[in-house]
Design goal:
The protein is α+β, with helices and mostly antiparallel strands and 296 residues long. It has helices spanning 20-111, 141-176; strands at 2-6, 13-17, 187-190, 193-196, 203-206, 209-212, 219-221, 226-234, 238-246, 249-259, 266-267, 272-276, 286-293. The strands form 3 sheets. Strands 3, 6, 7, 8, 9, 10, 11, 12 and 13 form a 9-stranded antiparallel beta sheet that branches. Helix 1 (20-111) runs parallel beside helix 2 (141-176).
Length: 296
């Protein structure tokens, strides 16, 4: 194999004869070197692609981990907020339960009711057969404690409602129960029964009790709640007030100087209804007081 070399300056040519090993070397350079360079370039590109893929995967994993950590922090914060809310709720329930117990105890003592029936220090008695509704979820102790407090408060509320009903009934009974004096000042000047009539001197039946007031204008009060059925003049009684208390009971307040109510008025026990006087058949300022049961 010959290689012809031309000289551009002198126009001469020179032939070079290549030996076997030279031809092999030249062939390698002309053919093998491009192959090697191509292979190396391919390997380099492949390695770079792998590195880029690894970097992208690493970045994606890091981003996913970051998002998971953010989600975990968010869930943790929500749990802390819920725990704080539950803690505040438990504190409020406990405070409310303490107030209910204290109020119930005071009401029970004030009304003289049986401590065993309204014992606000004991755990409410409950029971009954268990009917399973499935496995369900096991509530944490904290939530179970909240439920227990809520049940106690509900029980206390029911006790207080019943206690309130009993107190109202007792107050109503006391309100309509005829008792006490119709005046705050004065004394009993004549009792019920037989006496010497101050006008005739004969023995006569006195159907009420006289309360001498010493002067005109002393306050006269209803001895029980009721409805005014008479408010005006009546023969022998002068100015008189009559109150119907129900259950067959009536009271009369006679010889008044002024009447402060009218027929149909609803009065409470202890309400001012008249001012004492000496009207009608009277020897001086006093209140003639009668109590009737079923018209007698």
């Amino acid at each position: 194999m010959k290689i012809i070399i031309c000289d551009e300056n002198h126009g001469a040519t020179r032939a070079v004869v290549l030996k076997g090993w030279m031809r092999a070397a030249l062939g390698f350079c002309l053919l093998g070197l491009p192959v090697l360079l191509g292979y190396y370039g391919y390997q380099l590109a492949d390695t770079r692609s792998v590195r880029i893929a690894k970097d992208e995967a690493s970045q994606a994993w890091a981003q996913g981990l970051k998002e998971q950590k953010a989600d975990l922090e968010r869930v943790k914060q929500e749990a802390l907020n819920q725990l704080q809310t539950l803690t505040i709720r438990m504190a409020n329930l406990q405070a409310r339960l303490i107030r209910l117990d204290a109020l119930g105890a005071r009401l029970t003592n004030a009304t003289g009711l049986d401590d065993g029936e309204f014992n606000f220090d004991s755990v409410p008695s409950i029971g009954g057969p268990e009917i399973p509704l499935g496995s369900g979820l096991q509530l944490p102790d904290f939530v179970s404690e909240l439920d227990a407090l809520a049940r106690q408060i509900e029980s206390r509320q029911q006790q207080l409602n019943l206690l309130d009903t009993i107190i109202i009934e007792r107050e109503a009974d006391s309100e309509f129960q005829v008792s006490g004096r119709p005046v705050k000042k004065g004394y009993i000047s004549s009792g019920f029964g037989r006496r010497i009539d101050p006008f005739t001197g004969n023995v006569a039946l006195h159907q009420g009790v006289d309360f001498a007031t010493g002067q005109i204008g002393e306050e006269v009060f209803a001895v029980a709640a009721g409805v005014i059925t008479w408010a005006g003049e009546r023969s022998g009684y002068g100015k008189m007030v009559r109150v119907n208390h129900g259950n067959g009971y009536e009271t009369l307040y006679a010889h008044d100087d002024q009447i402060l109510v009218k027929v149909g008025d609803v009065v409470k026990k202890g309400q001012l209804i008249a001012l004492s006087g000496t009207t009608g058949r009277s020897t001086g300022p006093h209140v003639h007081f009668e109590v009737h049961k079923n018209g007698r």
